[in-house]
Amino acid sequence: MQGSGVIMNRAWIVTCLSLLVLAAPLRALPPVQVQAALTDETHVELTVLGQAIRDDVTSWCEVSLRITGDVTALSAGDSVQVEVYEDDAPLWDDLLWESSFTVSAAEASAGRLERTLDCTSNFSDDLGAFFEVYALATISKEAGPLVEEAETPVIDVQIVDDDFAEDDDAALRATLLAAADAPNRICRDEDWFSVTLSGQAAVSFTVTHLAAAGRLDAVLRDETQTSIFFGVEVDGGVVVEASSLAPGTYFLRVSPRASADFAFYDLRYDYLPFSCTPDEVETRDCGLCGSETRTCGGGGVWGTWSACAGEGECEPGAVEVSPCVEGTTMRTCDDLCAWGDPGACVADPLGAPCSTDEQCGTLDCLSEGGLFMGGYCGLTPCGSDDVCGTSGACLPAFGGYYCLLECAGSFGCRLNYLCAEIEGVSACLPRCRDHSDCQDGETPICDPDSGLCLPDPVADAGTDAASDATPRGDAAAGDAASADVVAADAIGAADVGLDAGGADDEHEGTIAEEGGGCLCGAARGHAVPAPLLALGLLSWMYRRRISSSS
Question: How far apart are CA 135 and CA 152, in angstroms?
Fold first, then answer.
């Protein structure tokens, strides 16, 4: 190997060999290999790809250099020579790349030099299956007649020709792509790929490669081999994007920009099918016979729906009931969500069977927990007969007030209903089923025979018994009061000049008013007998005497 110069203070050489697959998912690199050498003050590291393409004019290479002044100080103007060789032992080595420079004042002041150099070059040709490459760094310091060298061990780089996909050098031999990655490709000539779209779609092709080791171009063609989309250079490669492609077959061609400048690359194909055709408009029904629209965007994705427009005034088939002079009138909504003309005025079906309010016009369909069997077109509460129409009346029943159909006999009402008199008006009532139906406090008992709610006989009997069982003291007081009334009546009658023949009509009833009693009904129109007057007078005088003595 090269390196016959004086090598001073070389304590040892660190050799490391690692095969690294870079973490970036689309990093188009074969495994990377690294070799390093370290002296007291110099560290040199050579990095190359584990593979090189035969006859490629630029194979990727990188040298990292770190020099310190720990032993001999760095001075501005110290010279540095870096070289990369291909080992052709036992013959002389081939110089692949070289670079020289001097230490800057800033680096000398810092006492440290760190640089990374791009040594990408033509690795030439070799008779074997590998290139054997190494790096040599030589440092000459002005502080003394010192020259230091650091030389890396050899790295074996495999020589390759083309990838496994050959022969793919024409459209007729294109490799069919799926929506996925096509990694580990070698481009030393034209590589062709094809895709077939069954529907409108957006597609993109990303060709990832090391531009420093050779630029690649990409172009998309249609079935007639007309170029329709060209690649655009991006950081790390080139991208071909088609925002909208019609159904059909398309061809992607990848080729070296310079005919002898080959490259490793990865290819990624992304496919996004359209859900619609750009500018396509879709319409759908909404609301009350209205419509809303949406438009397909340039990426084949539907936009949002517009607001509902052009709506009508009603739901098709809906029925509207309105009051009229003697009942109700109806109109129906047509298929265009517009109301038809109102029908004839029809009397409300008071007392008719029903299941919904709509069947009763302006009335309600009464059910009351099943009391109104089969439903009953009526109204509750009601305040007057006026709201019940000409055939009904507002009457108290079952603890409330109802608009009920009037009737004229037991056969004037439908089955399970009876014609009953309420406050002098005959109306069709449902038959009560048990006491729970009778919510009126005065008639809490359901009579199963008549179907009517009746007063409670037990409560009535208790009231009569209570009135009969008046205490003795109360009876005596009542008798005394009666005697006072009789006496007062007698005196009053005498005062107004009543005689045995009758009473003065002008003062009729005055006795009861002045005496506080109620004998007026018995005395009205009749003379009070003289013996009775005398007896009353004597009784009054007697009670007054007793009262005075006590």
Answer: 5
